[in-house]
Q: What sequence folds into this?
């Protein structure tokens, strides 16, 4: 990470954010008395004494213990109009999305207090302002996408789709909770937008209660996503894109069955509404006290979906609506109590910029030039040595950043070459010199500017229709949804691999480093089965294999804590080990033990190590449990027979192709069963070429074992080593900063284990999925591996033309 003019920038991912903590903007609006209330001679209990303070007149006469005055960012009496409420209490927040900041405006209050009345006006005013802004902007190009959903009786429904089946909520490591298969429509005009809004209005669940003839029986979320690119960079590779969504949330109102006189369906709806609002209230209350305690976002669909708007990466405005009549006094006080807590909640408004690699390199270069200039001026002005040194360090950092980009580019190229090789495409068609002939220099300065344009192969997939004779499919042809994060610029191949294939990029590797360290210390000839490690290196030159970038580590550890109580045990890891032929220059390492006694010895040493390590002492128990090693289990006992048999044969090149075919069939069956996405399959097969020396079976590999015993650090160790320098607290802080909570750390490690162990047998995978579900205590436990894997990778169910390139992927 480097800091560029106060912004945090992640290279390679091309995703830039600058964040600022701020409080939720809270306002209160009191509606006028309605005809019925007037007929009953009700009077209003509330008065706005200025534009920020509202008082309860009743308190003064009653000598109530409740507060009589409440102060908020803005308060509006019955004479106010929605335009004014929008201008002062919602506009700034709603229009933030134009600047790349996610935002939410929502209305909260009891039934019939005026939420829909207020929100429908605000939504239209905001959308109109957004359109007007876009029309006036010539310097940027905009893409608008519209979606709408409702939560009715705790089911999420698509208001634009034709299918009324409930939608699932999924956890996306980048975006947080996402609604699976929610229709997103690209807007083409204002009229189009109005049509969609009218459609949503017609679709929404509305029912008559004694308090409101048109009572909303669901929570409604209307979402507009705005992407904008500077006009000069509208070509895909050069630019940076601002992207953010604005949510307009019209909540259903809390209600008393006695007041609404509801029964049957209405009563059931009311129960769901009240329950989810109760959770929303709890979430707000907990957040108002700081983020240290557990916040039960997952207790309702509403709070899961709104998680980002409540204390997350968004700018938020809440308008609390009150019914003025005395009969509603208690409900109004509750609403104000909610508003008081909401006032204390902080969110971090972030600018979301997705940058292409080329744009990042350009920006880094400009920044370096600026710094170098500053440095020159400083030297001339005889500035202190310390300041000059600091500038020099900054420049050095920039250089490292650019080199890292160059390395990622090379890695991406290596992968693309692999894809082409697997597809039997002529390597000479590549726009760069194929592997083995590249210059070893990686600095951008040594390369021409045009060289930068082909950094990331997924950029190519999106933007280039042909390379020589070979046709790349356009994105549409690939049927990859627009929001697909894996094909966006902001995720680099390395990040992708780390996130979706290996254990948690840091935590997982770090934990698995323990046995490796023990092995280094304790054994010259053997390695522990719990430390099965597959490592693949890419290199331009076969001789450079050991020095080239490490692309992946995977470790399969054993026996999760729950197995003690459930009686379930993970079977021995099936080490997925890849020994590429030398021209492919993939190297691997297999860890395998020789005897039980040795395993126990290593295990003891392991636990001694962790007992003496300060960091490990501070490690969360749940994390530690995940890596508990069961000394009673042996590799031989639990390795499936078929694999053992194949293993015995695997030394023979003659049998290999048969074994490989068998294994491949099995894996494909398993993938089908688990609906493993095409992209995962692709990467997997990039690593397993099917060459004579490739094996997916557990076996000792003397050459790669040697790698673990050498003293020289390998490139892949660098991140791990660096990370190990941090204390547990510092690591936790880092994770927090990266938005990776403990649950997702655990889940990612477990998922990767599942992905790797899947090559054993389907029963084992099913068992693992159950254990994983229990282990991470998911609110919606996954009953089958398919369910679990789908929740992690929902977007690749569609068939794509890519599959025709790779028949071996089994699609
Ligand atoms: N500020 C206002 N000025 C005039 N009329 C209003 C105002 N606010 C609400 N109303 C009227 O009050 C009635 C109830 O309003 P609305 O349907 O917006 O309430 P709600 O809070 O959304 O209720 P529910 O939770 O039951 O859906 C409507 O007839 C609406 O027109």
A:
């Amino acid at each position: 990470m480097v800091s560029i003019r106060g912004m945090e920038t992640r290279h390679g991912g091309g995703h830039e954010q600058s964040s600022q903590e701020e409080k939720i903007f809270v306002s209160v609006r009191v509606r006028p008395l309605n005809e019925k209330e007037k007929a009953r001679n009700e009077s209003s209990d509330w008065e706005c004494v200025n534009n920020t303070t509202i008082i309860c007149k009743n308190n003064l006469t009653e000598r109530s213990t409740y507060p009589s005055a409440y102060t908020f960012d803005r308060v509006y009496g019955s004479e106010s109009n929605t335009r004014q409420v929008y201008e002062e209490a919602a506009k700034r927040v709603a229009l933030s999305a134009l600047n790349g900041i996610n935002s939410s405006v929502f209305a909260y209050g009891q039934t019939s207090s005026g939420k829909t009345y207020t929100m429908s006006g605000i939504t239209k005013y905001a959308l109109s302002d957004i359109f007007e802004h876009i029309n006036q902007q010539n310097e940027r190009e905009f893409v608008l996408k519209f979606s709408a959903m409702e939560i009715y009786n705790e089911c999420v429904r698509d208001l634009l789709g034709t299918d009324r089946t409930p939608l699932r909520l999924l956890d996306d490591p980048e975006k947080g909770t996402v609604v699976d298969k929610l229709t997103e429509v690209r807007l083409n005009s204002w009229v189009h937008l109005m049509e969609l809004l009218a459609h949503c209005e017609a679709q929404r669940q509305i029912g008559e209660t004694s308090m409101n003839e048109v009572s909303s029986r669901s929570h409604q979320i209307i979402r507009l996503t705005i992407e904008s690119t500077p006009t000069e960079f509208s070509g895909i590779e050069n630019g940076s894109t601002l992207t953010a969504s604005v949510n307009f949330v019209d909540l259903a109102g809390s209600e008393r069955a006695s007041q609404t006189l509801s029964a049957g369906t209405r009563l059931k709806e009311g129960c769901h509404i009240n329950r989810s609002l109760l959770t929303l209230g709890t979430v707000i209350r907990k957040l108002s006290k700081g983020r240290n305690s557990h916040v039960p976002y997952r207790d309702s669909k509403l709070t899961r979906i709104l998680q980002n708007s409540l204390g997350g990466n968004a700018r938020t405005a809440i308008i609390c609506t009150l019914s003025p009549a005395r009969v509603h006094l208690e409900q109004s006080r509750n609403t104000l109590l909610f508003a008081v807590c909401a006032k204390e909640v902080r969110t971090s408004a972030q600018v979301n910029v997705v940058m292409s690699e080329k744009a990042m390199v350009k920006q880094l270069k400009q920044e370096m030039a600026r710094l170098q200039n500053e440095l020159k001026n400083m030297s001339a002005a005889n500035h202190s040595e310390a300041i000059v040194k600091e500038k020099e360090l900054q420049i050095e950092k920039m250089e490292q950043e650019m080199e890292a980009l160059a390395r990622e580019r090379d890695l991406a190229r290596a992968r693309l070459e692999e894809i082409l090789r697997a597809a039997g495409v002529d390597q000479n068609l590549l726009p760069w010199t194929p592997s083995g002939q590249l210059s070893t220099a990686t600095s951008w300065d040594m390369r021409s500017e045009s060289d930068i344009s082909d950094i990331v192969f997924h950029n190519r997939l999106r933007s280039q229709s042909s390379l020589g004779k070979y046709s790349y499919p356009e994105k549409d042809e690939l049927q990859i949804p627009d929001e697909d994060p894996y094909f966006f610029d902001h995720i680099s191949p390395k990040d992708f691999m780390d996130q979706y294939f290996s254990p948690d990029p840091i935590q997982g590797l770090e934990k698995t480093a323990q046995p490796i360290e023990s092995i280094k210390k304790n054994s010259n000839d053997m390695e522990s089965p719990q430390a099965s490690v597959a490592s693949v290196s890419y290199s331009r030159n076969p001789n450079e294999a050991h020095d080239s970038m490490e692309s992946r580590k995977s470790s399969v550890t054993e026996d999760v804590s729950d197995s003690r109580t459930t009686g379930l045990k993970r079977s021995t890891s099936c080490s997925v080990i890849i020994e590429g032929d030398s021209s492919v220059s993939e190297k691997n390492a297999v860890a395998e033990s020789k005897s039980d006694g040795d395993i126990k010895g290593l295990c003891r040493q392991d636990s001694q190590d962790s007992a003496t390590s300060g960091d490990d002492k501070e490690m969360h128990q749940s994390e530690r449990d995940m890596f508990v090693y069961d000394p009673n289990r042996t590799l031989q006992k639990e390795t499936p027979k078929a694999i053992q048999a194949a293993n015995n044969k695997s030394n023979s090149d003659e049998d290999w192709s048969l074994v490989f075919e068998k294994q491949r069939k099995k894996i494909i069956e398993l993938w089908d069963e688990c609906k493993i996405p095409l992209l995962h399959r692709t990467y997997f097969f990039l690593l397993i070429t099917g060459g004579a020396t490739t094996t997916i079976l557990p076996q000792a590999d003397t050459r790669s074992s040697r790698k673990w015993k050498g003293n020289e650090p390998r490139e892949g160790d660098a991140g791990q080593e660096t990370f190990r320098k941090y204390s547990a607290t510092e690591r936790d802080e880092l994770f927090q900063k990266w938005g990776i909570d403990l649950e997702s750390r655990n889940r990612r490690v477990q998922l990767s284990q599942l992905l790797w162990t899947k090559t054993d047998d389907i029963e084992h995978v099913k068992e693992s999925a159950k254990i994983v579900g229990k282990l991470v205590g998911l609110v919606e436990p996954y009953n089958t591996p398919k369910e679990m894997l789908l929740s992690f990778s929902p977007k690749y169910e569609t068939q794509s033309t890519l599959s025709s390139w790779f028949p071996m992927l089994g699609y």
In short: The pocket of adenosine-5'-triphosphate is lined by residues 31-32, 34, 109, 111-117, 212, 214-216, 252-253, 321 (CB under 6 Å).
